[in-house]
Amino acid sequence: RDDLRLDFLGATFGMKLPTGAQDVRNGSGDLAERTLQPGSGTADLLAGGYFRRMLGSGSSWFADVLVQKPLDSHDNFRPGTRVSLDLGYRREITDRLGVMLQLNGLHKARDSGSEAEPDNSGGKFIFLSPGASYVQTKSMQAYGFLQLPLYQYVNGVQLVAKRAFVLGLNTRF
């Protein structure tokens, strides 16, 4: 029925393992700053939750929040805690294909430790993200977004992107 409303509520838990290089050098051969390295060297706790409401006629809205908190430091460096919030609308085009429009918020606290640059780390960001998802199986879905910055505030001097592409795979157990 098109007037039937269903709500989904859930929790997300996980770990980010200390992967990624921490010894990348720039074009001059100098070791790049810690915040520019692909890996932080830390294990991080991931915790969050989500809500989805079916609106009928193949559409829904959703919200989710995720906190990424480093549990340790590595070589006198501890990345700042990240909190992300997503609000979005989804419309099913077919049984497997859906299009979405999201508003993404991100707050990143300053890094800490003697090898950190707290004055040049952390910030607040808001993105508009149109995208699509494709259901591969009942428990697996692939997705992709174009992330366009609406607001970017960084502490000190930092690199920021004019746009980003996000690709992912989501699975449920």
Q: Radius of gyration over alpha carbons?
A: 19 Å
User: What sequence of helices (H) and strands (E) makes up the elements?
Assistant: EEEEEEEE
Principal-axis shape equals elongated
**Biggest beta sheet attributes:** 8 strands, antiparallel
Number of helices: 0
Helical proportion? under 10%
Physical arrangement of strands within the biggest beta sheet:
1-2-3-4-5-6-7-8
Number of beta strands: 8
Task: Give the N-terminus to C-terminus distance in angstroms.
Answer: 27 Å
Q: Point out poorly predicted stretches.
A: none
| Backbone structural class | mainly beta
Proportion of residues in β-strands? over 45%
Whole-number mean pLDDT:
92
How does this model look, in words?
The protein is mainly beta and 173 residues long. The protein is built from no helices and 8 strands. It has an 8-stranded antiparallel β-sheet with strand order 1-2-3-4-5-6-7-8, with no helix packed on it. β6 and β7 form a beta hairpin. It is elongated. The model has no long low-confidence stretch (mean pLDDT 92).
